[in-house]
Write a structure and sequence with these properties.
By secondary structure, the chain is mainly alpha-helical. Helix content is 26%, strand content 0%. The longest helix has 20 residues. It is extended.
């Protein structure tokens, strides 16, 4: 038996149930979509000699071209909070690349400071809460200083870049 292909492995990973987050609010059940039954295709009837005659070729229709001066409608400019992918109150996993040394120091500092009774009102209870508070603080400061106190517009859509090919011997 052949090992599963890369596409099959990816399909299996994508079909796994999502991990359970005990802190997340309970979501309503997702309705399942059942595909409609497909009727078997009827057998084609044999063609008569008149039907098999070759028709003269027709010119292919040309695509409609835009007239000069007619522009496509521009989508409205949305700010970061109006992004349709952002759901108020939803917490989601984020991924960042951070050097190990600052991460280790930060993790230890939050762990121990959050357990110190003297810093109960100063330090967040965990890293996620502290990072979120820091993000809000930095965003508000930059918005105030650089954008008149309003949220910045949405950044352009990200495009995934392919991997660079490896050099021989690596």
């Amino acid at each position: 038996m052949n090992p599963p292909s890369k596409a099959d492995r990816l399909r299996q990973r994508l079909n796994r149930p999502a991990p359970v987050d005990p802190d997340a609010p309970e979501a309503p059940p997702v309705p399942t979509i059942v595909p409609a039954p497909v009727a078997p295709a009827a057998k084609p009837e044999p063609a008569t000699p008149e039907e098999t005659a070759v028709e003269p070729s027709r010119p292919t229709p040309r695509r409609a071209t835009r007239r000069p001066g007619s522009a496509r409608p521009t989508p409205p400019v949305l700010n970061a909070l109006e992004d349709p992918d952002i759901e108020p109150g939803r917490k989601d996993y984020r991924s960042f690349y951070v050097d190990d040394a600052p991460f280790a120091r930060y993790r230890a500092a939050i762990y121990w400071a959050s357990r110190n009774p003297e810093t109960a009102d100063e330090v967040a209870e965990n890293m996620s809460a502290d990072v979120e508070a820091h993000m809000l603080e930095v965003a508000a400061e930059l918005e105030q200083r650089l954008n008149g106190g309003k949220p910045f517009r949405m950044p352009p859509a990200t495009k995934r870049r392919g991997r660079k090919p490896r050099k021989p011997g690596q």
